[in-house]
Fold this protein.
Amino acid sequence: MGTFGCFEVTIGFGSGKERVDYITYDTKGVWKCYEIKVSKSDFYSKAAKTFVGHYNYYVLTNELYKLVKDDIPNHIGVYVGEQSVKRAKKQELAVDEQILKDSMIRSLAREFQKQYRSGNPNVVESLERQLRNAREEARGDRKRLQELMNFGRDKYGRNWYMDE
């Protein structure tokens, strides 16, 4: 909660020379940038690695990480799948924060337009319904766990089936 993200964010105005694969901004004002690399040639390509956030990360496969880990700068973190295998160190923003905000807004607007043009107005409703269902299921799981934890206890919290 409180974190907003977008794929393929072009930094700056006009043609934009750099693009972040994924960027997040949270309600505490922290920017995180993620460069997704799928192969050794992709990792070593001349394409810009846009690390402009407070925290910057590579997202790699485990096999690729083993091949390139010695060439990852000290301040860059690494995710292998969903697991953090190397923490990022906080940096000063490489560009003005307002440029990052404007860039993210433009990219989010682009994503909205793609969704709007798809002609499928139910996508957001479907995602919201899935989220509600997942939350309800989690609440039910917590309630069942609490019932199991209280099984066999009297009103004073003592186990009636054990000598205490």
The chain has two domains: 3-117, 120-152. Strands lie at 3-11, 18-26, 31-36, 55-60, 77-80, 83-86.
